[in-house]
Amino acid sequence: MANVLILILKSDATEPQIQHVIERVESLGFGAHLSRGTFRTIVGLIGDEQRLQSEPLSAIPGVAEVVPVMPPYKLASLDAHPQPSVVDVGGVPVGGGQLAMIAGPCAVEEPDRMLRIAKAVKAAGANIFRGGAYKPRTSPYSFQGLGEEGLKILRDVGDACGMPIVTEVTDPRNVETVAKYADLLQIGARNMQNFVLLTEAGQANKPVLLKRGMSATIVDWLMSAEYVLAQGNPNVILCERGIKSFDPSTRNLFDVAAVPVVKGLSHLPVIVDPSHATGKPALIPPCALAGVAAGADGVHIEVHDEPEVAKSDGPQALLPDQYAEVAQQIRQLAALLGKSIAPLPASKASG
Amino acid sequence: MANVLILILKSDATEPQIQHVIERVESLGFGAHLSRGTFRTIVGLIGDEQRLQSEPLSAIPGVAEVVPVMPPYKLASLDAHPQPSVVDVGGVPVGGGQLAMIAGPCAVEEPDRMLRIAKAVKAAGANIFRGGAYKPRTSPYSFQGLGEEGLKILRDVGDACGMPIVTEVTDPRNVETVAKYADLLQIGARNMQNFVLLTEAGQANKPVLLKRGMSATIVDWLMSAEYVLAQGNPNVILCERGIKSFDPSTRNLFDVAAVPVVKGLSHLPVIVDPSHATGKPALIPPCALAGVAAGADGVHIEVHDEPEVAKSDGPQALLPDQYAEVAQQIRQLAALLGKSIAPLPASKASG
Amino acid sequence: MANVLILILKSDATEPQIQHVIERVESLGFGAHLSRGTFRTIVGLIGDEQRLQSEPLSAIPGVAEVVPVMPPYKLASLDAHPQPSVVDVGGVPVGGGQLAMIAGPCAVEEPDRMLRIAKAVKAAGANIFRGGAYKPRTSPYSFQGLGEEGLKILRDVGDACGMPIVTEVTDPRNVETVAKYADLLQIGARNMQNFVLLTEAGQANKPVLLKRGMSATIVDWLMSAEYVLAQGNPNVILCERGIKSFDPSTRNLFDVAAVPVVKGLSHLPVIVDPSHATGKPALIPPCALAGVAAGADGVHIEVHDEPEVAKSDGPQALLPDQYAEVAQQIRQLAALLGKSIAPLPASKASG
Amino acid sequence: MANVLILILKSDATEPQIQHVIERVESLGFGAHLSRGTFRTIVGLIGDEQRLQSEPLSAIPGVAEVVPVMPPYKLASLDAHPQPSVVDVGGVPVGGGQLAMIAGPCAVEEPDRMLRIAKAVKAAGANIFRGGAYKPRTSPYSFQGLGEEGLKILRDVGDACGMPIVTEVTDPRNVETVAKYADLLQIGARNMQNFVLLTEAGQANKPVLLKRGMSATIVDWLMSAEYVLAQGNPNVILCERGIKSFDPSTRNLFDVAAVPVVKGLSHLPVIVDPSHATGKPALIPPCALAGVAAGADGVHIEVHDEPEVAKSDGPQALLPDQYAEVAQQIRQLAALLGKSIAPLPASKASG
To answer: By its UniProt entry, which PANTHER family does this protein fall under (chains A, B, C, D) (predicted)?
Structure first.
C-alpha cells in the first residue's frame, strides 16, 4: 500500500482535532501515519488513492494543507503505459517518432478552394487535412460554419487526395455525425472542460485531438484527456495551442515547454498549433520549428490561398508557398532528431 | 454614418497596396477615409459595423493593425439599453438597487440536508437557493451530481421554503429539462464559451446566470452574454467568480474591478461569487463585502452545514452561522449604498 | 523540534538513493523521518528550518518534490507578532483600526499647485500627502521627476498643512537624502525585488511603504518585507496596487483578496492603491471602497486638480471633488466596520 | 510629418470638448486631423512623437482612447538600425548568425570548482563563462554571493580558459567595479525596470545582457533596452528567461515566440535562458533547442558539477555531460539554420 496523500495540520491544531482527523481518515478506509513535530503535525494517508478524488479532506477542522503524492490522472500517465502511444489517424501513425502534419483552412469553404488547398498542402508534406464545419466564434454575428454540408465537402476532398481529415466537434448531439465523416475529432480549446462533450467523444470510435484550454494547467489538460480515455477510447492526441498571458504581442502565449512536460508525465502524443498560439503568420514558422525541436509529435498549421477573403481567421493563415517552406524545414529538423513525417496511408496515397 | 474601424497601414506599405486596401474596403460596402503621413497611412472605415465581424481585414497586404472603434457586442451594451436592467428570478428582482443573495451547497445532496440548509440561509437573508444537479468536475472519477433526481429535490426544497432556485446546466440536451425545474439557469465558467449551450439557453424561457470564464476578458464575457441575448432572451445576470492568475494564495483571482467595468459597459446586472473566486472560507466574507462595495448586484456563496462530508467543494463552503454573519454585514453595507436585499416573492414568502 | 520540510521521493527512487538522501539530510544537521509506501517514500526533515533556505534539496538524486511546511518569512509572520502592528507615520498611526488616507499627485510639481492640492485633500480627510520626486518611468524620454528640489517642495507643503509626507525612493544612493525629508519611504512595484534598495531602506530610520510587484505572489511580497524587517526596521506598510493579468480592461488587476490573505499571514498593515490598480478614474472610488470593505488599513489615491496637464499619470488622477466624495464614503464604511480614519498629528493639525 | 497617434473620442463628446481637444493638441505643437462620424469622432495627431511620451492625452475630457501609431522605443527599433546588430563580448561576436553559448554555475563558488566547470563547458562548446558574485535572492536568509572576491575568481577563471565572462550587477554603486572585471554586465529579471541601474549600465563601457522581467511585455523590455541605448551604449543583448503564468508545471513560462517577435521589432540580438525559464533539468535541453529553432542568437544554461551542494539554484543545473550533449545538438541545429556557434577570441583561445 502506498502513501497517497499528506495532510499538513495547522500549527494550532488541537489534540481532539488530530484525533478527529485520524478517525475521519480511517472511516474513509485509509491508514493514517502520524508524524508529530513541535510546530506541525503531518498525517500520511495510506490506501487506494482513486477513492480520494471526491473527499473534502481540507475541510476537516485542523487541516492546513493537502499535498497529493500521486497524479490525479491514471490512464493518461506513464505509469499506466510507459511507452509512447502511437495513434492511428485514418492510416497515418502519429507519435513514436512519426510526425502529424495537419494543415488546411480554418473553416470549410467551397469545394474547389478546399481541393486546391488540400492538393497544395499534401504536395508540401501534410498528411492530415483540416477544416472547420462547426465554428465556435466569439461573436454570435460571425460566420458559424457550413455544418454537415461542410463535413461532406471535407470528406470528399480528403478522399480525392488520399488524406485523412480532422474537424472540430462542438455539440454532443453532433458527435455521431462528425464521427461518420471525420478520421479525427477535434475538441477545441474553449471546450476542453466541456465534460459532456468529452464523454461523448470518448464513446465515439474515432481518435480525438484535444486542444489545451487557454487557462488550463497541464494537469487540467491531462484530466480532460482522462475523461476520453475513461470511456474506453485510448486514442487521444494532445495539442498545445497557446495559453492566456498579459502580453498582447501574440494572440496567445505559446507554451513550448508543455511538450517536454507532457512527455515526462504521459504516453499520449502531443503536437503544437503555432497558428492559434501566435495568431501572426510571421511567427508561425519559427514557432513550428521550436515545437518540433522541443519534441512535438506533429504540427497543426492553418493554410489558406487567399487569406484576405477567408471565412474565418484569415489573418493568421499561411499561404501554400509559406507552408511548403516551413514543411521542408520541419522535415530536415525531424531527420536531425531521428524522426520523420508520418507517411500517408498506402491505400489512399494514389488519390 | 460612422467611423467604425481604423486600419493602420505598415510603414512600408506600397502605393498599390494602399489602393488595394481601398478597393477591398469599398467592395465590402464601406467608405474609406484616408489620412496619409510620412511614416504611416491610416484608413478610417465608414459604414455599418455589424457587417465587419467576420472580415479578415488584417490579412489584407499592407495592413499593420486593425483598431475597432465600436464594441463588438450590441444588445449587451449601454447604447442598446442605457438604464440598468432588472432581471426577475422567480419573483425576485435582481438589479437596479436590489441584491440577489444566492446561497446553498455546491451539489444537491439528500433532501433533508437540503431543506435544513435552505431554511438556514433563508433565515439569514438569502433570496435564491442554489445546488448543482449536474456537476462539471475536473476528474472523471469525482461525484458528477444526482441529475434529474437532484433537480426534483431542489425544486421541492425551493417550493417548501418559498425561494426561487438556480442550478447549473452543462448539456444542451438538458436545457429544457433544467428549465422545467429551475428559476434561473446557471452557465458555469468552464462553459462560458460553449456557444452551443449558450444558444440553447438563449431559447429557454428562463433567465440565465452567466459565470465569467477563467481566462475570459470582460469583452469575451459580454460577447457570451450577447449569444444569449441574440436568441431573444433578455434576462442575463453576469457573475464574476475569479480568473486565472499566478499566485496560488487563492483558488482564482477575484477581479472585483470587473464589477464597475461591467457597469460602465453594460446594463446587465452583475453579481460576485467569492466562494469560487477565493476557494477559502476565511476570504469569502471580506470578498463578499468588497464585491458589494464595488457595486455588485448580488452575492453568490456556497453554504454547507457539514463541509467535511460535502459531496463537492466542501473545503470552500461557509457554515450557516458564518453565512448569517456575512449576510447581516451585506445588509448594512447595502443600506449605506442606498440598496437593499431583494425581497422574496410575496406568494411564496409563506413557504 | 519540528517537521520543517517534507521530501517526496520519486516512485523509482532506489535504495542507495534513499540512503544517500538520509545521509545528505543528516550531514546538514537535520533529523530524517522516513515513511515508506509501495509507490512513494516520504522523508520528513526535523530541525531548524532557517538553515534550509539555501540548500538545494530537490537536486539530490531520487527527490521528486520538496514540500515546505513552514513559511519562509519569519519576522513578517503572525507567529512572530500575533497582534496587528500599528505603524507611526510622522504621528499618524496606521493599522489596528485606523486608516491611512494617502493622497496627492503622481509627481511633485510646482509649489503653488502642490499646496493647493494638499489643502484640498486634507480638507477631504487625507492624513498623508504624497508626490514623486524621483519617478521610475517606463520610457527614458518621459519626465523623471524634480529630484531633491521636489523633496523640498513636498516637505514644505507637508509642514504648511500639518501632514506627514510619503515619496518614492528608487536609488540606494538616495535613501539617506529621501529619509531626511520624508516621513514614509515608498518602494515602488518595479523595485519590490530590488534587494539592494530594500536593504538600504531597512537601515533608514523611517517607515517603509512597500508596494506589491506586478508579478509578485503574496509570499514574494512578504519575503521582500522580510528584507526590510531583517535590517531592524519593523515599520513596514504593505500596499496592494494591482498585478499583471490578461485583460486590458484595467491597467492592472486589483487583487482585493490579497488584503484578507495578508491579514491571515502577517501582522503588517496593508493598504490598497486603486489608482495604479485600475488606471481609470471611474473605477477608483468603487475599488477604494472594495479595499476598505475587504479589511484594508488605508487607501492610496492620486489626486490632481488639472489632470490633462499633469506631469505624470494624469489620466488616472481623481479631481479634488471626486476625492472628497470617495473619502466621505470611506469614512462611513470605516464606521460600519468599527474603524476610523487615523487622526492627523496634534502638533501639526494647526498647520 | 506623420500621424503619430490617434485619439478616439467618446461617443457623447460634446462640440466644446472636441474644440478643446484640438486646442490642447495644437498647444502641444501638433497638427490635428479630424474625422467625424455619426457615433465617433477621431483625431489624428501629426508631429514629432518623441514629445508626446509624457503628455496625458487620455485625461483630456471627451477622449475615450489613445491609439499610438509609432512604437515608443526608437534606438532599439528596426527603423533606427534595419540590420541585425552584432555585439562583441570580449572578442566573441554575438548576433548575425553567430550564437552565444553562455554557461556556468548560478553563483561563483570556490576557484577550483569554477575552473573545473569552465574547462568542461568550454570543451563542450561554450564561449562565455558565467557566475554570480552578487546574487539577488528572494530570501534575506539565503546565500547572497561572494561579492568582489567572486568577481576576481570569475575573471581569473575566464583568463585561464580564454573565455569572456558575464556576471550580474545589482547595485548602481557597483557598476564600475563589475565593469572592471566582466566582459558583459547582466541586468537580472527582477531589475529589468530598475531604471537607475539601467542608466548606470548605459554609462559603463561594457555590453549589457538584459534579462526580461517576469511580468514585462516585449514592449516594456525594449523600453528598458532603450534606457541603456539612450545613454550611448549600443551593445545590448536581450535574454528571454520565462514570464509569470498560472501553471506550476514549470518555474516560469518560457515565451519562445518572444524571439521572433523581437526579431520583427528590433535589431538587438536575443538569446534564451531555458534554465530559469523552466527550472527543471529535464526541460532545459528541449527548450534550448526550441529557442535556437525559433531564431535565438544564443543560449544561456546553468551548469554545475555537483548540483546537490550548489550555493544557488542547484536543482535547475545541468551536469557538464548533459551540457555537452545539448551543446552538440545546438551545434547541429545551428548548422541546419545556416548559423554557427561564435568562435572564442583568437588571442585567448590558447588559454
So the answer is: PHOSPHO-2-DEHYDRO-3-DEOXYHEPTONATE ALDOLASE
Task: Give the count of Cβ contacts less than 8 A between chain B and C.
Answer: 117
Q: Provide the ipTM.
A: 0.94
| Cβ pair D67:B246 closer than 8 A | no
**10 Å Cβ neighbour count for B83?**
9
Chain D: give the shortest CA distance to residue B70, in Å: 8
Per-residue buried b or exposed e for B313-351, using 16+ beta carbons within 10 Å of the residue's own CB: bbbbbbebebbbebbebbbebbeebebebbebbeebeee
Distance of CA D274 to the CA centre of its chain: 14
In order along its 351 residues, chain B shows pLDDT tens digits of 455 688 888 888 999 999 999 999 888 888 888 877 666 788 888 777 666 666 788 889 999 888 887 788 999 999 889 999 999 999 999 999 999 999 999 999 999 999 999 999 999 999 999 999 998 888 888 888 999 999 999 999 999 999 999 999 999 999 999 999 999 999 999 999 999 999 999 999 999 999 999 999 999 999 999 999 999 999 999 999 999 999 999 999 999 999 999 999 999 999 999 999 999 999 999 999 999 999 999 999 999 999 988 888 888 999 999 999 999 999 999 999 999 999 999 864 444
Burial class (CB in 10 A: 0-12, 13-18, 19+), D347: exposed
Whose CA is closest to C129, among C110, C153, C151, C102?
Answer: C102
Q: What is the pLDDT of residue B155?
A: 98
Among residues A150, A126, A269, A264, the alpha carbon closest in space to that of A210 is found at A269
C-alpha angle with apex C66: C61 to C67, nearest 5 degrees?
Answer: 160
Longest alpha-carbon distance in chain A: 76
Q: Which residues of C touch B277 (CB under 8 A)?
A: 257
Q: What residues contact B340, with CB distance under 8 A and at least 6 apart?
A: B97, B98, B99, B331, B334
Dihedral sign computed on CA atoms, order A310, A315, A317, A320 = positive
- Domain residue ranges of chain A, discontinuous segments joined by +: 3-68, 87-348
CA distance D252 to chain A (A): 10
Angle (CA) A299-A302-A306 rounded to 5° is: 150
Q: Do C6 and A11 touch (CB under 8 A)?
A: no
A87-348: CATH topology? TIM Barrel (3.20.20)
Nearest residue in chain B measured CA to CA from A219: B138
CB D23 within 8 A of CB D12: no
**DSSP, res C146:** -
> Would you say D53 and B16 are in contact if contact means Cβ atoms under 8 Å apart?
no
Q: Is C293 exposed, middle or buried (0-12, 13-18, 19+ CB in 10 A)?
A: buried
The model's pLDDT over C224-274, given as tens digits with 9 standing for 90+, comes to 999 999 999 999 999 999 999 999 999 999 999 999 999 999 999 999 999
Q: Check if C68 contacts D (Cβ < 8 Å).
A: no
Name which of A65, A60, A63 is nearest A12 in CA terms. A63
- Residue that wins the pLDDT comparison between C51 and C319: C319
Rounded to an integer, what distance in angstroms lies between the CA atom of residue A333 and that of residue D333?
Answer: 8
DSSP H helices, D135-265, are 148-161, 175-181, 195-203, 218-229, 258-265
A3-68, what's its fold? Alpha-Beta Plaits (3.30.70)
CA distance linking residue C183 with residue B73, whole number of Å:
49
User: What are the residues whose beta carbons fall under 8 Å from the beta carbon of A286, sequence distance 6 or more?
Assistant: D257, D259, D260, D293, D294, D295
Do C238 and C94 form a contact (C-beta atoms < 8 A)? no
CB distance B243 to B255 below 8 Å: yes
Residues facing D308 on adjacent strands: none
Per DSSP bridges, beta strands B63-68 and B3-9 are: antiparallel
Cα separation, B318 vs B301, in Å, equals: 8
Q: Which of residues 172-191 of A touch B (CB under 8 A)?
A: 172-173, 190-191
Give yes or no for a contact between C291 and B269, defined as CB atoms under 8 angstroms apart.
Answer: no
